[in-house]
Structures are given as structure tokens and as C-alpha cells.
Amino acid sequence: MCRSNQELWEGTGAIDTHNPNDVLLAKDLKPTLAVGFFSPSHDRYTQTACVYIRSEFKCELMITQQVLLRDAMRRLDMTRDAFADRIGSRRRALDSWLLPDESNEFRAMPEVARRFVQEILANATPRTDPSTQSVYTGAGPLTPGGPLRHLLSVDQFTRESAEDLFRLADVMLPIARRHKVTRVLEGAVLANLFFEASTRTRVSFGAAFCRLGGSVCDTTGFTFSSMAKGESIHDTSRVIAGYADAIVVRHPEQGAVAEFARATNVPVVNGGDGPGEHPTQALLDLYTIQREFSRLGKPVDGARIALVGDLKYGRTVHSLIKLLALYKGVRFTLIAPPSLEMPAAIVDRVNRNGNVVEVRESLQGLADADIVYATRIQKERFAEESIEGYGAAFEINRALVERTCRPDVVVMHPLPRDSRAGSHDLSSDLDGDPRLAIFRQTDNGIPVRMAIFATLLGVDKLVQRSMRDAQWTPPTFIGPEDSPFHGLD
Ligand code: ASP
Ligand code: ASP
Question: How many domains are there within the chain?
């Protein structure tokens, strides 16, 4: 039995669930976590619950002000101005509380403000709005919002579960930015299996796993794999599962990664399956959109999003549009020549919740977009078809942005962009322009993928208190052309 919070905190006492005092004590610590204490229990349950409460409570105390504030604004759907107003502080003060600790302008949030924010969050009614739920109605490991065993599709997410992941990504940020280190995945091995070309995504997954303290085994290409000798996906999956604790798979065929996941109990992450999905890219894109909008003072509900380029084979836009459809009143403008239009089945699913899909064949449709998301023509997926109709009129470049777009537009691209003449992909003449968010996107891939691994391997609660200071100093800006707010937003 615990006689005080101190004992509970230190683990020197155990909670007796039949003892009303202990129940009260636990409730006092964190009311939402004490619910289980009212159900009949046996010793093991009691102990586990006690440890759980203790670590949750400790984590809550250790949560940085930046994580707390961003989480609060996301949950309450509030812009920075509205939130500053709600907590009775100035917008400038709020901005300074949100900066990374290393910034000169960073200020510590007063304790009374922290308590007030915690109170507002505790009293906030959880969203029950059906519009925030995935339209996917699967069961088992793919249930939307259910526990993540594998990450195969954005259909597994509700708005709440995506935002829970973003909260964890915020916790990861000081590690991703190399100010802190952790070893929560020490000893764990990631198998990074890319049966299709990739540099960035493969390294991004690998770096995320390493930054959690794990190690990575990599393989790239199909020609050198056992699959080229006729091995089934089932056999490869089972073999690799015996070597590794998590598996990332990129495969040229839609559905192949799900088949891979069915043959193993080790968590599998879809790193892109043919023209199917690229769920981690969509999650890092949505995380980026939220961060950009937070800086610009816009909510994601009601956003105007233009998707441009190869919408037929571009798996990143297939995943992104489904994820964004969890928000309300979003206006999607789809701009592609008729031969590269978004598949009708995806458009039908998005057309709900007051979300509107508009199909345009010219870049004039960008005029009031908050986000312009350009994509590469996926030539490798063209069988007999020709890339008809994709000419200079589809190229997003500085002149077009100046002439057509809003001054606060955010230009995104999943990369790689095809810089060869005649590709008409996103032009490099926008490089160095703060409206171009492509490297903020790739940088955000690290905390988001760290959050995914930490969740899949069940160490999400351990990260915060495991952090230590890094022993080296990274450059303040990673890229010479990074915008002044890059990493500080
Ligand atoms: N979008 C990039 C790629 O797929 C990198 C990333 O996923 O972060 O290569
Ligand atoms: N890197 C992204 C993907 O793997 C986008 C692209 O390749 O164009 O889907």
C-alpha cells in the first residue's frame, strides 16, 4: 500500500485497489489514469497499473512547454492568436515559449500559465465528431485509431490518433535537431528493405531508428534480392523477422507490403507500395502543414490545398489527400492533365465532411491555395502510356508563384524533384525562398518516423525522461539557404 504520493512516485509503495485511500491517492495524481483502479484487480495488474501511473505522471511533469502548448493548440483547433487570447497572454510571449530551448529568444513559460493550459486540456471535451474518423472500416490491426501493430495505410488513422503521433513527434524534436540523445531502442535492429529505388526515404527511416539508439541493416534493389530467385514474400518476411525487431518495406507492387506484414508479428512499415500508398510521407506532410499553418496563424480545417502533377500514380498524394480528409471544410484543387488524374475511388472518399474536390487542368487553379503540393511524373510506373499533355504549362516556378499565388503560400513536394530539362517538375528557381517548404518537409521526416518506431516498439513513454544532452554542436541552420524560421517555427 502507498502512504504518500512520494512512495508512489518512487515506486516504494504499491497501490491496493481495494483500499479507498489508495484509489484516492492515485486519482489525485492524474484522474484520467486512475480509471482502471475501480475494476477488480489482482496483484500483477495492480503493480503494472502503479508503474504505469508513475511513469505517466513523471512524463507529464517532464513534458516540455513546447510539446504541451503545441498539443493544446492542436486539440483545441486554435490558432496561436486565439490560443494566446484564451490563456490571457500576448501572442509574442506565446511565440517565445514555443521556440526551442537553444534559441536566444526562448522564454520559460510561467508555472501558473502551464497549470492553466493543463487545466484547459483536462476539461476539453474529446472530439466525437464522426467527420474526424477514417472512412476505412477495417478490423483487427488496421482498425482506425486502434493500436498500431503495423503501419500500412493512412486508413489506420483518425484525426485524434494522427495528432497523438504528432505530439510524440514534438517530443522527438530536440533529438531530431541533435540537441539531445536517447538510447531507448538500444539493441534493437531495423531491417530496411527497399525493393525499389530510394535514397532519402531509406536514409530517413534508418536515421530515425539510429537516433532512438537502434541499429539498421539495409538492402536496396530487386535484382540482388532472393525474390529475384523466386522466393515468396511470405518466406522473405518470415526470415527477416527472425533477424530484426522492425521492418520497413518498399515494394513496386501495390499491396505487397500488407502481404509482407501478414507473414510476421514483427512490426512492418509501408515505405511505399507501387502506386498504392506512402503513409509515412503523408504523415510527415500533414505534420509539416500543421507547423507551417501554426506559424502563419491558419487552422487546417478549411484549408485550400492544391495537388499538382501525377495524381494517378503519385502514391504520396493518394495517402495525403485521404489523411487531410479527416479535417473539415478542406478545398482540394486537383491539377493534372486528363491522363494523370487522381483515381475516382479516392476522390469519392474525400468528397465528404464538407470537403470539396475541384478538378482543374491549369495552374490558374492555384490562385487562392494555402498549400501548393507539386509531384514528380512517376515515369517508372508507365507501361505503354505516354505522358501526354504534361508540358511547360504545369511547371511551378518563381514567376508563376509571384504572378498567381497568395503571398503566404507554402510550396511542398515529396521529393525527389526531377531537375532534368523538359521534366516540368518543381523548378529550382524557388530555392532559398521561404515559401518553399521542401527541406522543412524532409527534416520533419525524422521526428515523425521516430514517433512511429517508438509507438510500434512500445517505448513512446520512455523517450522524454531518457534524453541526455548531445556532446556535439550541430550548425544552427542545416542548409545555407534555410529560411530564418527553419527549425524555430
Ligand atoms: N520524400 C522523400 C523520399 O521519399 C524523403 C522522405 O520520405 O522524407 O525520398
Ligand atoms: N519519394 C516519393 C515516393 O517514393 C515521391 C516520388 O518518388 O516521386 O513516392
Answer: 1
